[in-house]
Amino acid sequence: xxxxxxxxxxxxxxQGIGRGIAERLMRDGANVLVFGRTQAKVEETARDLxxxxxxxxxxxxxxxxxxxxxxxxxxxxxxxxxxxLPGILVNNAGTATLAPLLDLPDEDFxxxxxxxxxxxxxxxxxxxxxxxxxKKPGVVVNISSLNQLAVTDGLSHYCASKAGLxxxxxxxxxxxxxxxxxVNVVAPGAIQTPLAESVGLIEVMGHEFLxxxxxxxxxxxxxxxxxxxxxxxxxxxxxITGETISVDGGNHIRGLHSYWDMLSRAAx
Length: 268
Prior knowledge:
It comes from Myxococcus virescens. InterPro entries: NAD(P)-bd_dom_sf (IPR036291), Sc_DH/Rdtase_CS (IPR020904), SDR_fam (IPR002347). Keywords: Oxidoreductase. GO terms for molecular function: oxidoreductase activity, acting on the CH-OH group of donors, NAD or NADP as acceptor; quinone binding. The chain is an alpha/beta fold. It has a single domain, classed as NAD(P)-binding Rossmann-like Domain (Rossmann fold). The protein is 50% helix and 14% strand. It contains ten helices and seven strands. It has helices at 16-27, 39-53, 69-83, 106-134, 156-176, 194-198, 201-212, 222-232, 251-254, 259-267; strands at 7-11, 31-36, 59-63, 88-91, 138-143, 181-188, 244-247. Strands 3-2-1-4-5-6-7 form a seven-stranded parallel sheet, sandwiched between helices. Helix 4 links the parallel strand 4 (88-91) and strand 5 (138-143). Helix 1 (16-27) crosses helix 8. The chain is globular, with a radius of gyration of 18 Å. 47% of the residues are buried.
């Protein structure tokens, strides 16, 4: 894969989809700043990736919070110093809780919006400013969700944050295209990750996902998402911007059952 840059930042890269993306970008020739909130996990992931690629690509750990502008700025400084000015940004960090609208705590709504929507906004702004100043092209891939299109009970804040991210990305693509910066969205469906496992999503709803997924599997793997991200970061995608690519086995065609109903019944 002919990536447009050999320096990348991946947020939420310590596990799950983010780790899969970091690994794939390194396999395709990029050095990666592994950005995450938990220092031990971030450092462990960077060590594992460096052992895996044995000097052919480099992973640099960075512990920070995407909600904090100072952490975003500092991560760009570290990436530029250690790896060169990043030309690739993957906003993958995300979170979710499960509650019906009438019971959803205000603080849960604020946290999900801050991580899933404000974080990518802060990163895109800082990343694009650095590239525009340097007169360099770049690419942003924002990791959204099937839930930007197919909503479900119990995830009002999550669905809203991902739909907001999709539209934010379109505006960014429109504004930044003149500077040679492309912005696209990848929208995964059910993927086998620690976040999905923590709410019992695959275990409880595997049969439902299987019934609603044309390609006949209950879920995908991080590598399924990572391959699409790498393509969008490459020269073969040079004429693609403002686009959303669903990576869900076709699940968006058939829609979703209520997460809240199924997971609530399973918990009883």
